[in-house]
């Protein structure tokens, strides 16, 4: 059933390269651990370099480790609440001959999308994302990774502390920290009021959610954003437990790119919308209203995000801007015939039909080096100046 959206392919790849994945996940070249402890700028540059040089094998290992992470956590976030399946040859089927649906999923849908402030590697944030997928609720995600400065200050302003996850529901004015409180609110407001067992096992739920982060060390945790945020939020179709979708979310989180998460877990009624819109139902699917780009395939999406919003793009743009400014300044300086004056002295004042604006003091015959002091004089001082033509000529030349 999962073959069409890449989940089964990822699981099979994970099982085939299990031993290799164990090495790559914790090796520096695999992106798991930093090669050195340096400044934030160095870490971001190193991350951008790794992403730029990622080979096809590393992409496969990335998908494999993400698939293993899905196996570690299990089914939560992969199916809507009350998921059912039956044989059906009708038009509204996800896989030929199979119809997936939910009869117990409440019809109450929020009029306005919820807002979630979180970061990908946080196990508590993962619980909330799983609940949103199970309830088939769309949410605008504002990534707040470590060392991020785009949306963390806003959380501090709204809640008085930087703790995640933080959910804002504009439909009910609900705002809260604490994953358990958020999950309970979601099921009471948009569900049947009963929190599923897999989300209410306390430490066991937290540990299994943490196992996902352990298999993806360093991913979706630290910010490497550079430059301003996009004017419009991006749109990502997928669901929490899908391995390819996780790779895209990690990149979005690290680049601090806000996006609308359109949940299409198995059994979601929105899969038909995607099928009608793009001709097939496959996740992840990204739509960027800022550039008009729409695409499938996690590897292509991640490369697009890096090229469009990555640190390399903004550093290159800044270099071009600096170079252009320097060239313009050099050109202006070289074509100008004026002399750059000492900023401590006042610039000369040019008045039409007036005498020279500089007063030259008398020179002493004993001194071999003449010292000229510039000073702004008014037109009244012309009376005291000598009427010698040669002297006036020297003054004009000096001015």
The pLDDT mean sits at 74
User: What fraction strand?
Assistant: 5-15%
Unreliable stretches: 1-52, 314-399
Strand segment tally: 10
User: Could you describe the largest sheet, including whether it forms a barrel?
Assistant: 8 strands, mixed
The helix content is 40-55%
What is the general shape? Answer: globular
The number of helical segments is 13
Strand order of the largest sheet: 6-5-3-4-8-7-9-10
Summarize the helix and strand pattern as letters.
Answer: HHHHEEEHEHEEHHEHEHEEHHH
Distance between the termini: 88 Å
Coarse structural class? alpha+beta
Please state the CA-atom Rg, rounded to the nearest Å. 33 Å
Describe this structure in words.
The protein is built from 13 helices and 10 strands. It has 399 residues and is of the alpha+beta class. The strands form 2 sheets. An 8-stranded mixed beta sheet has the order 6-5-3-4-8-7-9-10, with helices on both faces. Strands 1-2 form a two-stranded antiparallel ribbon.
């Amino acid at each position: 059933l999962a073959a069409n959206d890449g989940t089964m392919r990822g699981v099979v790849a994970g099982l085939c390269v299990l031993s290799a994945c164990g090495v790559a996940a914790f090796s520096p070249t695999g992106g798991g651990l930093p090669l050195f402890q340096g400044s934030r700028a160095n870490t971001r540059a190193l991350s951008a370099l790794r992403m730029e040089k990622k080979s096809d094998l590393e992409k496969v290992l990335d998908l494999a480790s993400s698939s293993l992470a899905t196996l570690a956590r299990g089914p939560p976030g992969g199916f809507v609440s009350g998921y059912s399946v039956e044989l059906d040859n009708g038009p509204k089927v996800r896989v030929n001959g199979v119809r997936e649906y939910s009869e117990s999923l409440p019809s109450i849908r929020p009029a306005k999308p919820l807002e979630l402030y979180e970061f990908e590697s946080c196990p508590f944030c993962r619980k909330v994302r799983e609940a949103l997928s199970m309830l088939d609720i769309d949410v605008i995600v504002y990534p707040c990774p470590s060392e991020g400065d785009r949306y963390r200050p806003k959380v501090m302003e709204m809640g008085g502390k930087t703790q995640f996850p933080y959910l804002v529901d504009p439909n009910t004015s609900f705002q809260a920290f604490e994953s358990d409180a958020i999950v309970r609110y979601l099921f009471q407001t948009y569900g049947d009021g009963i929190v599923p067992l897999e989300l209410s096992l306390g430490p066991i739920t937290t540990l299994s959610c943490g196992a996902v982060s352990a298999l993806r060390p360093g991913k979706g945790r630290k910010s490497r954003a550079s430059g301003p945020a996009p004017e419009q939020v991006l749109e990502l179709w997928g669901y929490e437990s899908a391995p390819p979708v996780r790779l895209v979310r990690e990149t979005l989180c690290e680049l601090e790119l806000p996006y609308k998460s359109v949940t299409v877990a198995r059994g979601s009624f929105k899969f038909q919308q995607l099928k009608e819109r793009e001709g097939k139902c496959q996740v992840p699917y990204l739509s960027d209203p800022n550039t008009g780009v729409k695409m499938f395939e996690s590897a292509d999406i991640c490369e697009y995000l890096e090229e469009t919003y990555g640190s390399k793009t903004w550093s290159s743009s800044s270099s071009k801007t600096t170079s252009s400014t320097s060239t313009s300044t050099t050109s202006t300086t070289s074509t100008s015939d004026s002399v750059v004056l000492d900023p401590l002295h006042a610039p000369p004042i040019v008045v039409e039909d007036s005498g020279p604006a500089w007063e030259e003091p008398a020179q002493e015959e004993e001194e071999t080096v003449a010292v000229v002091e510039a000073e702004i004089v008014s037109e009244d001082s012309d009376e005291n100046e000598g009427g010698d033509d040669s002297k006036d000529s020297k003054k004009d030349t000096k001015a």
